[in-house]
């Protein structure tokens, strides 16, 4: 606290100057003490806020890591499910393709007699040969697994890549024609 100020004249001008200096120095000391106290309080609060922020950041980092781990697990599960579903669809597609080829072979065989009558025995024999070939292809398709078929396809692409590109282009063209609507 500041010393009491007297409003009475003290008598000498030097004593007034001395008293003013004393009061000024006391006020400076009080201001310095107040600034030091504010600095100490600000340092304490800053340290507390820093610790609090560091704790929150560790908590958030832990949460983020947990969410990341959960996402990896879910992605792995979904990838596994997709692989199983794709495998099931491939097996189903292989069965349908085999049945279609077998049915086509049977239809050609059934019509071979009619071809004999209409076009001659030579063309009937061609039809029977094509029918056997289709039946053999269907049987081979049934006998192989999807993995074996995909490995055969890879080997065919390695052996003759130009033919593979041509086949892919023809299939792509067919799908484009199949799925494109008329512009009219």
Please characterize this protein's 3D structure:
The chain crosses the membrane at residues 162-180. Residues 9-19 have a biased composition (Polar residues). This is DUF883 domain-containing protein. It comes from Allopontixanthobacter confluentis. The chain is mostly helical. The chain has one domain. Helix content is 89%, strand content 0%. The chain is built from four helices and no strands. Helix 1 runs antiparallel to helix 2 (121-143) and helix 3 packs across helix 4. The protein is rod-shaped.
Poorly predicted runs: none
Percent range for β-strand residues: under 5%
How many β-strand stretches? 0
Largest β sheet strand count, sense and barrel closure: none
- Report the mean per-residue pLDDT as an integer: 86
Give the ordered list of helices and strands: HHHH
Structural class of the helices, strands and pairings? mainly alpha
Give the number of helices.
Answer: 4
Instruction: Give the terminus-to-terminus CA distance.
Output: 98 Å
C-alpha geometry: rod-shaped
Helix content: over 70%
Radius of gyration: 47 Å
- Tally of distinct domains: 1
Protein name: DUF883 domain-containing protein
Organism: Allopontixanthobacter confluentis
Biased composition (Polar residues): 9-19
Region (Disordered): 1-21
């Amino acid at each position: 606290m500041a010393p009491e100020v007297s409003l009475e004249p003290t008598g000498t001008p030097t004593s007034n100057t001395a008293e003013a200096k004393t009061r000024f120095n006391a006020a400076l000391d009080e201001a310095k003490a107040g600034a030091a106290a504010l600095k100490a309080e600000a340092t304490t609060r800053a340290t507390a806020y820093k610790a609090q922020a560091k704790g929150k950041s560790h908590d958030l980092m832990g949460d983020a890591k947990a969410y990341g781990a959960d996402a990896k697990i879910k992605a792995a599960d979904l990838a596994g499910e997709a692989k199983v579903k794709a495998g099931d669809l491939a097996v189903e597609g292989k069965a349908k393709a085999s049945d279609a080829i077998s049915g086509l072979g049977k239809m050609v065989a059934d019509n071979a007699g009619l071809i004999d009558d209409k076009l001659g025995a030579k063309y009937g024999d061609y039809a029977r040969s094509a029918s056997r070939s289709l039946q053999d292809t269907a049987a081979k398709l049934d006998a192989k697994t999807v993995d074996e078929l995909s490995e055969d396809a890879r080997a065919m692409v390695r052996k003759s890549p130009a033919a593979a590109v041509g086949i892919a282009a023809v299939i792509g063209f067919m799908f484009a024609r199949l799925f494109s609507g008329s512009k009219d």
